[in-house]
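Worked example 3. Consider a protein that binds copper (II) ion.
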Amino acid sequence: MNWRTRTLADKQTLGIFSLAVLAVLSGLAVGLWGCNSNSSNPYGAAPGPAPVPTSPNTVLISGYAYSPSTMTVPKNTTVTWKNNDAVTHTATSDNSAWDTGSIVSGASKSLTFTTTGTFTYHCTVHPMMTATIIVQ
Ligand SMILES: [Cu+2]
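Given these inputs, the predicted complex is written out as structure tokens:
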């Protein structure tokens, strides 16, 4: 009677031990799978460079030049000049119809064009800087 009981007890112990081993092994397997899953997780990848925002009605002043040198916009469009140079510039209509005035380094000035026409303009500080706004 005693040996049977002990054998049964041993079997139960072995059974519990086996279950524990299985549990640990499956835990390891899940852990490894989890690690692999994390390392290949596309959401963990470093984000790419942020897209450069485009300003459709902006004239960039850089290197003593307006860019674009010719811009065509619909009537009532607000055009912005952004000065990326280290010196002050202006955007001044050749016929004196409009003038941004001084745009210091890093600053922007905006004008709204309410009449159609082709406007050549220049920088009063650097008259060799010229460009054109076409308002349709
Ligand atoms: Cu200038």
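Take a moment to read the result before moving on. Residues 89, 123, 125-126, 129 surround copper (II) ion (CB under 6 Å). Confidence is low (pLDDT under 50) at residues 16-39.
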